[in-house]
Design brief:
about 30% strand; alpha+beta; about 20% helix; 8-stranded antiparallel β-sheet; 3-stranded antiparallel β-sheet; globular; Jelly Rolls; 5 helices; about 270 residues
Length: about 270
C-alpha cells in the first residue's frame, strides 16, 4: 500500500468508478456541483460542529470524540425524519463498540432541515439508485428507500491524540457510506485508508481540504482513518478534525434483534 495524492474522481466518472473500484473521492468544486450547493452554504453549517456532545461509549476510556446522531429515510430525494432511535451495530461489524445501543444527542432540527444536507442526501441516494439498477442490469424504474444514519463527529487532540476510528479497519454493515471532511484545524495525521474486502489491494490518502467527499461501497471495501496529533503540542486543545458521516442501508436500519443487549447508559433527554 502506497501513500499518494488523494485519488480524486472526475464527476463524469462517478458511477463507473464507484462500481469498479468500490469508492470515489470528490474534491470540493465537484462536490458542490454534485450537490447543487455553494461553498458559502456549507461554511455557514460549520457552527453545527461547535455544539457536539462527548461520546460516552468509548471503551478505550478516551475523551477525544464528540458527536451527534440522527436517523432519516430518503426516497425519491424526499427526506423523512425518524423519531430518535439509538445507534446500533452488531459485534460482527464493530468488535470494539458493537453489541450495544448507543444513545447520542440528536442532531439539531436546523441542521437536519438545512438545504445543503437535504441536497447531499438527495444526490447520494439518486446515485445509489443508479448503482443498484446497474448492478442488477435494470433501468432505474423507482427510487429505493434508503435507511440513513447521520453522524456529526469532532475528533480533538486535547489529550494528545485523537482516534477517528478506534475500532480499526471495518465495514459498517450497510450498503454505502459517505464521509465529508468539514474541517481540519492544526492537526497532522488522519490518513484515510480504503481496503478491498476480498483481497490485499488498498489505497491511502489524507483529506486536507474542507468539503472533500469520500463515497464507499460498504459491501466491497473496508475503511479506517489513522489517529490525529496536534501541530502545536503546547496547545493540543486547539486542534480537531470535523466530519459528517452518512450511512445508507436498503430495507431497514441495523437494529438490536437479540432482545438481550442492555443499554449501557439511559436514554438522554431530547436536546432539540
Amino acid at each position: 500500500m502506497t501513500s499518494f495524492t488523494p485519488p480524486f474522481t472526475p464527476l463524469a466518472d462517478l458511477r463507473h468508478t464507484l462500481l469498479q473500484r468500490g469508492f470515489v473521492l470528490l474534491q470540493d468544486q465537484d462536490f458542490f456541483s454534485f450537490t447543487h450547493t455553494q461553498a458559502t452554504q456549507w461554511e455557514k453549517l460549520k457552527t453545527e460542529w461547535e455544539s457536539l456532545e462527548p461520546d460516552q461509549y468509548l471503551k478505550d476510556g478516551g475523551k477525544y470524540r464528540q458527536r451527534k446522531h440522527a436517523s432519516v429515510v430518503v426516497s425519491n430525494e424526499q427526506i423523512e425524519l425518524v423519531p430518535y432511535r439509538p445507534h446500533f451495530q452488531p459485534v460482527s461489524y464493530n468488535a470494539l463498540h458493537g453489541g450495544m445501543q448507543r444513545w447520542f444527542t440528536e442532531c439539531s432540527k436546523d441542521f437536519l432541515n438545512s438545504q445543503p444536507l437535504i441536497n447531499l442526501l438527495g444526490s447520494l441516494t439518486s446515485l445509489f439508485d443508479q448503482i443498484e439498477a446497474l448492478q442488477a442490469n435494470q433501468e432505474v424504474s423507482k427510487s429505493l428507500r434508503w435507511f440513513t444514519e447521520v453522524h456529526q463527529f469532532r475528533i480533538d487532540t486535547a489529550s494528545g491524540i485523537g482516534r477517528p476510528t478506534p475500532e480499526g479497519a471495518h465495514r459498517d454493515g450497510v450498503n454505502f457510506v459517505a464521509v465529508l471532511l468539514v474541517d481540519r484545524h492544526l492537526v497532522k495525521g488522519g490518513e484515510s485508508r480504503v481496503f478491498s474486502a476480498i483481497g490485499p489491494q488498498g489505497e491511502r490518502f489524507t483529506l486536507d481540504e474542507s468539503w472533500t467527499l469520500l463515497i464507499l461501497d460498504d459491501l466491497k471495501v473496508l475503511h479506517e482513518t489513522t489517529p490525529i496529533q496536534p501541530m502545536d503540542r503546547l496547545h493540543p486543545e486547539h486542534s480537531w478534525r470535523d466530519t459528517l458521516v452518512l450511512t445508507f442501508r436498503k430495507d431497514a436500519f441495523l437494529e438490536d434483534l437479540s432482545g438481550t443487549v442492555k443499554m449501557q447508559h439511559s436514554k438522554p433527554e431530547p436536546s432539540c
